[in-house]
UniProtKB/TrEMBL annotation:
It comes from Actinoplanes sichuanensis. This is DUF4262 domain-containing protein. It comes from the Bacteria. The lineage of its organism: Bacteria, Bacillati, Actinomycetota, Actinomycetes, Micromonosporales.
Length: 181
């Protein structure tokens, strides 16, 4: 089983917004990260269901080669990025997200899929939402208002977020050799 780094977006049932965002991503080109250009896979748009069984459209935007062990990356050269480079890439993905509309929740990071399940966030992560310890989580302004803490600030018109934190050096980053030092 692989692990993905990317942007995931919950569009609820707004198909028009999801397809518009997908088209925007397809025309977005590559991202300059460090000394290389990082290209995105075509966005994956699928129906998913939250922990209560309520369906929603989920879009995954994954950079080519950045994940580890992903079937989607077979045939592509692995792209090993440092924590600083991943942070830069994540910031650029949030820039792309600022151009979307109609979504309910979004997050960039390593396997951020559970972070956009609104029922799971409300049920399992209310204390984290209140404490503001889910950095990078973006919500539509009327979503989960009863469980959001003061850490949420404006992200884009109609959206709030807990500002994105830097990625940390780990076994998933190119600077993992420096962890023992």
């Amino acid at each position: 089983m692989g692990i993905a780094f990317g942007l995931v977006v919950n569009f609820g049932v707004d198909e028009a917004a999801a397809w518009s965002a997908r088209d925007h991503v397809l025309g977005s080109g590559s991202f300059a990260v460090g000394h290389r250009e990082v290209v995105l896979h075509p966005p994956q748009l699928d129906w998913d269901a939250d922990v209560d069984g309520v369906p929603y459209l989920l879009m995954s935007i994954l950079p080519i080669g950045v994940g580890r062990g992903l079937p989607l990356d077979r045939g592509h050269e692995p792209v090993r990025l440092s924590a600083a480079e991943l942070t830069d890439l994540g910031s650029q993905l949030y820039g792309l997200l600022r151009e979307f509309s109609g979504y309910r929740a979004a997050r960039v990071g390593w396997d951020p899929y559970a972070s956009v399940d609104l029922a799971e966030l409300e049920r399992e992560c209310a204390d984290l939402l209140e404490a503001g310890t889910l950095p990078g989580l973006v919500l539509f302004e009327s979503v989960l208002t009863a469980t959001r803490g003061a850490a949420f600030v404006p992200f884009a018109p109609w959206f709030v977020w807990i500002p994105y934190a830097s990625e940390r050096a780990s076994s998933l980053t190119a600077d993992d050799d420096n962890l023992a030092a």
